[in-house]
From TrEMBL:
Endpoints of the signal sequence: 1-18
Superkingdom of origin organism: Eukaryota
Keyword list, A-Z: Glycosidase, Hydrolase, Secreted, Signal
PANTHER family: MANNAN ENDO-1,4-BETA-MANNOSIDASE 1, PTHR31451
The family this protein is said to belong to: Belongs to the glycosyl hydrolase 5 (cellulase A) family.
Keyword Transcription attributed: no
Enzyme class: hydrolase
Name of the molecule in the record: mannan endo-1,4-beta-mannosidase
GO cellular component term of the entry, any: extracellular region
Primary location group: secreted
Protein's cellular compartments: Secreted
BP GO annotations: mannan catabolic process
């Protein structure tokens, strides 16, 4: 970045004003050292991921889902605050009832705040509170799903660009901020918002590749996190803000493994993904850290029958490392997403992962993803988008969903919810 007096002045002004207010309104969640707090009382939770809640077309189904969550002791739900479509998808969306908030048909998106748009998110935000639940709301997606960064890139800079222009092209940054402002202003007075999330799983690469300027040490994501968290803080001085990142480290001591006589430097620790978990957590307006676990998908080379590497033990290490990072930063950290395919894999690993997260004072534990049966819209069957569908009244299942009828897993989380609730009493 070119140094200039104007930039210095702008930074100084942001530095002075972009600060969290200390007088938190009633019912808002905040932090105190390594703990969350609500109304001055420490707060720890088991939560749920459900991006599909605002995609439901029936209010009764939204309500039934929150009711089931409440029965499981869920206190915080993470959902998408974005649903963007291409202009070419509009006719189909109107026909199928697909929820959409932004339509892209030029360099600027058009907002849909109607009944098939943000009013659906309004209902989710409102109903959450009725069931004692707060929401983590993400502003966009690193991935193409439900209209993330790739639509901004495609429409604003045109094809042939790398993924990381999302973080640096000023036209894209202001278009993103225009959307962030819409969402934050809409709900900034609501105690039902737990935290704002800048992006789901920001990385240098997405469905497009990374460019040569987003590399270990370039701090591309760090700079973006800083600017966007200050932007949100200026709009809303009370709600917490987090990154939504997967928790990749940028460690000086290289971590890697041997495979086929080749040393492979590990993406999760070498900064190549784009995040620097420790440094990002130090940002003044990042109130807590998030990380995810998808060991099966991240280590396919090590993950084969007969290998002495296991998803379970790798997950335990990753949980411990993030707990250590939280301690260093003196901020809370949440295990925000984790998933294993296969029922036996889940029953084998989840109890130990959850147990370690509880023991290492994690403020929140949120499996990917919540499942509910008995949904009634369209007779319980509807294709939403991609492979996401309601089938016989069951919410979308990507192989990772956990339904109440899976009693063993359900109990792992409901018991953990009880431990979290009683931690401070
Ligand atoms: C959106 O539509 C444009 C053309 O109208 C197309 O080039 C692009 O691939 C589409 N993007 C997505 C993510 O569907
Ligand atoms: C998108 O733009 C094209 C070309 O300007 C136009 O023909 C089309 O009707 C627009 N579609 C929507 C959904 O606005
Ligand atoms: C292992 O390395 C050798 C030598 O470089 C190469 O020929 C072989 O294709 C590699 N095996 C796999 C499975 O990639
Ligand atoms: C298996 O364990 C040995 C000894 O700890 C280690 O050197 C090796 O890298 C491990 N193999 C795999 C595939 O992880
Ligand atoms: C269980 O995990 C192993 C190791 O990651 C994987 O190979 C297997 O496919 C998983 N089982 C199912 C049913 O997904
Ligand atoms: C639980 O519900 C899911 C979703 O409807 C279904 O696929 C699964 O078979 C059910 N499992 C049991 C054990 O009943």
């Amino acid at each position: 970045m070119r140094f200039s007096l104007v930039y210095l002045l702008v930074s100084l002004v942001t530095f002075i004003f972009a600060k969290k207010a200390s007088n938190v309104p009633k019912g808002f969640a905040t932090t105190q050292g390594r703990n969350f707090e609500v109304d001055g009382k420490p707060f720890a939770f088991v939560g749920a991921n459900s991006y599909w809640l605002p995609l439901l077309t029936s209010k009764e189904d939204v309500e039934a889902t929150f009711k089931e969550m409440q029965a499981g002791g869920v206190k915080v739900v993470r959902t998408w605050g974005f649903n963007a479509i291409n202009g070419s998808e509009l006719a189909g969306a109107l026909q199928s009832g697909l929820t959409y908030y932004q339509v892209w048909n030029s360099t600027e998106w058009v907002l849909n705040d109607g009944p098939q748009g943000l009013q659906r998110l309004d209902y989710v935000v409102e109903t959450a509170g009725k069931y004692g639940i707060k929401l983590i709301v993400a502003f966009t997606n690193n991935w193409v799903g439900y209209g993330g960064t790739e639509l901004y890139i495609n429409w604003i800079t045109g094809a042939g660009k790398t993924h990381d222009v999302f973080y640096t092209d000023r036209r894209i940054v202001s278009s993103y901020q225009r959307y962030v402002q819409t969402i934050v202003n809409r709900y900034k007075h609501s105690p039902n918002i737990f935290a704002w999330e800048l992006m789901n799983e920001a990385r240098c690469s997405g469905d497009l590749p990374a460019g040569p300027n987003c590399v270990p040490g370039s701090n591309t994501l760090h700079t973006w996190y800083q600017e966007q968290s200050e932007f949100v803080r200026d709009l809303d001085s009370h709600h917490m803000i987090t990154t939504g990142g997967e928790g990749h480290f940028y460690w000086k001591t290289p971590v890697g493994y041997w495979w086929n006589n080749t040393w492979i430097s590990d993406y999760n620790y070498n900064g190549q993904a784009g995040e620097d978990f420790d440094l990002d957590l130090q940002l003044e307006n990042i109130d807590f850290g998030t990380y995810h676990i998808y060991a099966q998908y991240w280590y396919p080379l090590l993950d084969f029958p007969g290998s002495n590497w296991t998803t379970k033990s790798w997950g335990l290490e990753w949980i411990q490392q993030h707990a250590d990072a939280a301690k260093k930063a003196n901020k809370p950290v949440i295990l925000e997403e984790f998933g294993l395919s296969g029922y036996d894999n889940k029953t084998d690993a989840y109890p130990e992962w959850v147990d370690l997260a509880l023991k290492t004072e994690h403020g929140g534990i949120m499996p990917w993803q919540f499942g509910v049966n008995g949904l009634k819209e369209s007779g319980g069957n509807r294709l939403i988008k991609y492979a996401d569908a309601l089938i016989d009244g069951a919410s979308p299942d990507d192989g990772l969903a956990i339904y109440r009828n899976q009693t063993f897993l359900w109990n792992v989380f409901t018991n953990a919810a009880k431990v979290q609730a009683s931690r401070f009493s």
